Structure formats: structure tokens, C-alpha cells
Amino acid sequence: MKWFKAVFSLFVTIALVYVLNTKIGDIPPVGKFLSPFRGFWQNAESKDLAATKQLVVTGLQGKVSILLDKNRVPHIFAENNHDLYFAQGYYTARDRLWQMEFQTHAAAGRLCEIVGAKYLELDRFQRRMGMVYGAKNSLAGMMADPATRDMLEAYSAGINAYIKSLSPQEYPLEYKLLDYAPEAWTPLKCALLLKLMAYDLAGRSDDLRMSNILQQYGPQITQDLFPDYPFRAEPIVPEGTPLDFTPVKTPSVPTNFQAQLSNKVLEKEPPAELGSNNWAISGAKSATGYPILANDPHLQLNLPSIWYQVQLIGSDVNVCGVSLPGAPGVVIGFNQNISWGVTNVDADVMDWYQVKFKDNRKKQYWHDNQWKPVRRQVEEIKIRGQKSLIDTVYYTHHGPVVYDKPEKVFNKQTPVSHAMRWTAHDKSNELRTFYLLNRARNYQDYQHALSFYVAPAQNFIYADNSQNIAIWPNGRFPLKWQEQGKFILDGTNLAHDWQGWIPAAHNPHVKNPARGFVSSANQFSAGPDYPYYLNWQYSSPERAIRINQRLAAMEKVTVDSIQALQNDNFNIHAQTILPTLLRYMRPADLNAHQQQVLKVMQQWQYRNDAQEIAPTVFEIWWLLFNKAIWEDDFANTGLELRYPSRDRTIHLVQQEPQSAWIDNRNTPPKETLADLVNASFRATADSLQRQLGAVSKKWQWAVYKSTSIQHIANLPGFGKQNLSIGGGRGIVNATSERHGPSWRMVVALGPQVQGYGVYPGGQSGNPGSFYYDNQIETWRLGKLNSLVYLRNKTDNSSAIMATLTLQTK
Amino acid sequence: MRLFLIIFIGGFIFQLFLPWWSLAVISFLAALWLARKAGSAFWGGFLGIGMGWLLLSGFYHWRNEGLLSAKVATLFTLPNAVILILVTVLIGALTGGLAALSGYLFGKMFK
């Protein structure tokens, strides 16, 4: 009996230890995770940093000093480029390793390896989108250049040196939660990270929807409702800017191709509101007599932040700004002489080709009057705790066939049996652009750097201390015929292929314009006088209009006035259309509550300030009004369609109030504009009342909008909720529910450059660190931190809190 | 008392250098050697390991001003960090106690 009790007790003990050591579903191994010796408690950082620390790291050629300022921004001093990028990799990994790995796993379609079958559709989509294919091609481009090859290899070696130094109890928290270990870093992962950005910024296309509309309504209506240039435009390169090149011949438009209708409902696409602002004012407009540059990229707001501040000081470079954890160099920033920034260009660089396979075996496809072989790529999607999924992706010379069976389609914009042609799939070396920009001393250096850049196309803004400002909407743009790629293209017709490239020097650009400033907010790159076709639609121009209005009016501009403009909450869209809507209102038909809401709208000064109630009402009112006009014509028709743009809708409302489109074709009576305006207003007031009760603080814009920053794996408790901040989509302060200025930077050029910046997060990716989210409040208030920019190791020593020295024995 | 001290100190040292479940090994061995009664074996392990986990987690919690424990508590839908510490200590203590009890029972077989 004794032995039975002993064995049973031991069995229970071992079973308990086993269960506590095993991940069950989403729950981490509880014993391992809760152990104060090994688990998450180890990640609960102390507030104080050791003032000096020496680390022995294998792989360095010389000595590296990393000086940390009060925001834990590393200022990395190295004797050569190898050590510089090695140290950047090492230290970035120290702060953000898990983020770097998780994001590159997501880009590569490898999330199932970590988390299990939950992300199968996402992973499969990434494989079929050709993310790894594109990354491998870009990698080839980056490795072909000695400078960028060395940069990548040193950066990777630095990350790996850090990973090797970790014992399991030192792993970042998320590794412990998800119960896995970091794997070795490779240069391919740097390329994958850049592709992830490319997808977020240049992965949208409307070709499927447009083709369906063309089928449904015909060319005349399609051209009328979806024109190739808006009524109200504010192109980045102003109309009338003289061309400094002779345009090459553009391909002629081939005979019409009517794409097959597709009734697939698609699921994943990058959000439309990813955009950004940037501008630069000339010395003549500036209080200091030197240019000032500003940039705020708008991305999804997450923790850890997509950006990581750094300063790199090497033998031939001294650059400061933000980097992308996972890629070497500085992506947005400044050095002693110049500053640059980026906003997204909505050029059409993603086209869809309808593929004609020979038969169901899909071994050949028809192109240029012959059968061509299909390349098969077998993708193995490893799934934690399960058998791998094997997926075959078919490649044509256009690119991957993203979905080739009538199966569940993942991306709302991905047609069936269509191949994707995307500039982000091409061999490229964007890294070289940043390498050169980091070291640029003048306009020629900047222009030269830009010539290497392929995707995602960006409006590169520039200012230097020699009194130059400039902007180049820049990337590799296909040389297209008018409207090529607006609709699905004929994958069998050679004339539908991309016929060539716009020469880099012919990309739209403007330098030192008479008006004294340059700017971009994702609007049209250039006016109708630009000789090439880039796209038929860009972002709605409200932000651009507001920015340009303010910059034109400003004189003796200072950093403070630039900062104020970045935080501007003025609603151009409201200013444009609200008076029109109010004119159609019939107050006599409203009840007491609705009248109260109407009064709010009538008194509104068009500012999306945090405590205002009108923005909440306006946001919903416009949504419902817009829907009321277009839903019967462009939704619920069984096909994937889209509404006409805001610009087109405004024109309809203000210039074509009798238009037949206003009538709801599904109802017998003929609706008028006044009917729609009033009905949507009443519905808005009532809906908000149902949701929030009587008009109160709950109706305030910041409360309703409830801007939040989430952990990148959406872990509850690891984000920041309900931030009180104004702004919104189409506002210069572009802060919406989950998106906003992910970095705000202002750089004052001059004999001593001075930078200012902030991002809604913190340098450390460790949720247990005091530097995980410490900059959020500064950002929320619209303030900027003064950026420490060191010229040498003893410069500004009061700003430095700690020094880390790295060397190989 | 001796058992408690051996498990507390020995356990602490073991866990500093070995995987977390080494706490079970030390509890088992110590009780195998020293325990005279089932009850005192269990409590020796329970309190010996529990004390170590309480002191260390408490220290980290304090040093970090409760920053991380509050977040992890939310993640596990616990009301606050104190409950999280309680759960932490209970897990360790229970494992230690059971291991010690097993050690005692095995020891009894050979005595």
C-alpha cells in the first residue's frame, strides 16, 4: 500500500509539472511563465539604468560606444560601417527583438509556426501574394551591391550576436507567452520587413471593383463617375511647373478588353487611411532664414511602435532620425546638411492580369500567341501542433496567380484566376537609397539616392542648409498607356504588359518653387500637364489643401508654427460640404433632440477638436448620406463594387443636385437630394441617441473616436486605450480610431541643425519597461521632444544617461 | 522547520541555475531525506517554495512599480496584480508541496 501511495503521489506531481510546462491553446506554460526565476517576472525592468556598462561581443572590428539619452535613444559611435551596422542590429534587437521577428514571420506567412492554425488564411495569403518571392528578388538586388551587402550582413550579425547572448529567462516577454525561442536572423528578413511596408503602403488596388463597374454600367458612366482627375485637386507638383526633361513616347492604348465578371467576396486589404503628411518651407519664409522640414507618416498605431529612434555616427556618416526595426540605416531623418522625409505615393504599381490556362492542370497559360509554361512554387506552411499545409502557387511571367480556384479568397481586392504584377516583386535595392540619403550633403546626392528606389513609391521631401527645398514623388513607375491598370488587364495580350519604365529623372519633381514651400499629403503627384500616366485616383486632397492654405499664408515661420500645423484639426471636408447640407435641412420636420443636434452643426467652426460634438455627428452623417446616394447603385448588387470618390460625390451634390443617381432605385418614390440630406441627418441623430443617450460628454469626438494603440499581437492589457486626442481622417492631424501620425518630426536646418520629434510609444519593446510607452502622452498633447544630435562623444553630455561600450576581446 | 529551510534555500539556489521545475526535484529529495510526517512534508515544500516565489515576485513587482504585473493581470483577466502574485505563489507552492509529499512517501517505503 505504501508503494501505491508513493507512486500515485509522484505521478500526480509529475503530471502537474508536465501540465504547467506545456502550452495549452493560447495559455502559456503556466509554471514556466509564472516562475519568478524564469518567467515574465524577469522582464519587469528596473527604472534605473547602469551608468556605464562594458559588453564583450564577438564580431566587431573595433570599439563601439552607444550613448543613451533620457528617452533611451541610442547614439551609436563606430569606427567603420561594419561596426556601425553591427551595433545598430545588436542594440535594436536588445530593445525590439520580438517585434522584428514577429513582423518578419507575418510577412513571410509563418505565423502558424508560432501560434497554430489560427492564422492559416493570413499565412496562405502572404505566400500567394509572393511576399517571400518579392523579398528574395529585392535581397538579390541588395546583395549585388557591396555597400548594402556589407550593411545587411553586419546588421544581421549584430542581431545574431544579441540572440546568442540570451538565456531563456532573458527572452522578451512575448516569447515566453507564446512559448517559443528566437531563431537566427538573416538578410532575407530585412528584405521581408521592407516588403511588409510595401504591402501596407502600396498593396491596395481597385482593379477588380472597377472592372465589375465597367461591366455593369459601361464605359460612359464609369468615366463620368470615376474620372481620371478630380474636380478639386492640389497636385504635389503644381500645374504649370516647367518640365526639365523631354518625355519619352508613351505606349498607345490597345483595343478594349472586357474582363470577366467576378462575384468573389474578398477579405484582406491594407487600410485606406495609411498616408502621411510632409512639407518644407524655404529659407525666405522661415524666421531663421533657413528651411524647415516636417514629416508625419500615418500608420496603424501599435506597440511596440513601427519606428525606432537612432543616431548613427560612423567614419562617413552622422545621421539621426527613425529606423525600421529589422532594417539597417535611418529611414526618415537628418544629418548636418540635409533632411528628408516620406509620404506614400498612390501610384498604380499593382496590376491584375486575367490568366487563361490551357486546362485544369494549369501547366501552361496563353500569352503573346503561344502557350507558356507555368512555374509552380510549393509552399509549406508549418503549423504548430499540426501537420504542415502544402500549398501550390502558380507563377506566370506577370507574377503569382494569387487565387486560382473558386475557394475562399482572402483579400477583398484579389480576383480569381488573375496574376499580380507588382513593382514590389522586382529586384531592387531600396536600402541603397537610404544608405546614400543618410550620407547626402546636397541636392545632387539626394537626387542620386532617389534613383535607386523602386517600391513602395514615396514622396521624398528634402531641405538643406544651402537654401534648397524639393519634393520628388519617387519610385519605379511603369510606363503606361492612359488608364492602364485601372481595370483588370488581359493576361494573354502582350500589349497589356508593362511596356517599360518612366526614367527616374522624369519622375515628377519640383525644386525651390516660387511659392516658397513644397508639400505632400498623398494627393496627385502632378497635374494633367505631366506627360505620363501614374494613376487615376489618389488620396482625397483635404489635407493637402489645408496644408498649402496655411503654408501660403504663413510668414517668418518657426518650429512652433510648423508644430501647430501638424496638430491642425481643421476639417476642410466639413467646410466644403456642410453649408450645402445645412441649406437642404428642414428643421420643422425635426423633433427636439434632432433640433438640438442641428444647432450643434450650425454653430460648428469645422474643427475636429477633442471636446467638440459636431465632428462625431458629421462623421456619421456623411457616412449615411454618402451611403444613401450610392448604396443602391454600388453595393448589394452581388458583385464587388465601390462607391465613387468623395470628390465626385461633392461635385454631384453641389453641381448636379437633380442627378438620377440620387434616387434610390429600390424604392418606388423618387428621392430628392433634400430627402436624402434630411433622412440621413435624422438617422444620424437617432442612431447616436440610441448608442449614447442624450447629447452629453459621451458625444465628444475624442470619446467617440476612442483612439487606441494596441499591441501588435493584440494582447489585452498591453496597449493604450481611449486616448483623448482630436483630428481624424482627412484632417492634417490625421488621428483616427487606430491610425495616426506614427512619427512626428520637424527639422530646422541651419549652421547647427536641430531636430524635434515624437512617436506614440517608446524605445523599448518590453511591456515591463518604463520606456515601453513613455512618449505617448507627449505625442497626445501635440508636443515634440528635442532630438539629441551629437557631433562627438563628449557633445551635450548632460543629455546622456548611460554609455554602453561594445568590443570584441 | 529544517525541511522548510532546506527547501527554501536549496530551492532558491536550484532555481537560479536550473529550469523552473527543479523546484520539484529539490523538494522531493529534501523531503525524502528529512521529512517525518506527510503533513509537515507537504507544508515544508509548499511554504519553502512558496516563500521563495513570494519574495522574488514581490521584489520584481516592487522594483518595477507594478507596471508589468498590472498588464499581465489584465491579460489573464485577473482583477489586479496582487491576485497575480497570489496565483504565482500558489502555483509554485502547490508544486513544491506535492513534490515534497511524494518524496516523503518514497522515503517511507525504504524506512
Please give a structural write-up.
The complex is a heterodimer of chains A (809) and B (111). The radius of gyration of chain A is 28 Å and the shape is globular. Chain A is an alpha+beta fold and 809 residues long. Chain A has 21 helices and 29 strands. With 111 residues, chain B is mostly helical. Chain B has one domain. Chain B has helices at 2-17, 22-34, 38-63, 67-75, 81-109. Chain B is elongated, with a radius of gyration of 15 Å. Chain B starts with a helix and ends with a helix. At the A-B interface, helix 1 and helix 2 of A face helix 3, helix 4 and helix 5 of B.
Key features?
heterodimer; A: 809 residues; alpha+beta; eleven-stranded mixed sheet; B: 111 residues
The amount of helix of chain A comes to 25-40%
Please count the beta strands of chain A (DSSP E, at least 2 residues each): 29
Strand order of the largest sheet of chain A: 1-29-2-3-7-8-9-10-18-19-21
* Gross geometry of chain A: globular
- Strand count of chain B: 0
CATH class of the domain at 575-705 in chain A: Mainly Alpha
Q: What CATH architecture of the domain at 575-705 in chain A would you give?
A: Orthogonal Bundle
Q: Mean pLDDT of chain A, rounded to whole units?
A: 94
- Taking pLDDT < 50 over at least 5 consecutive residues as the criterion, the unreliable ranges of chain B are none
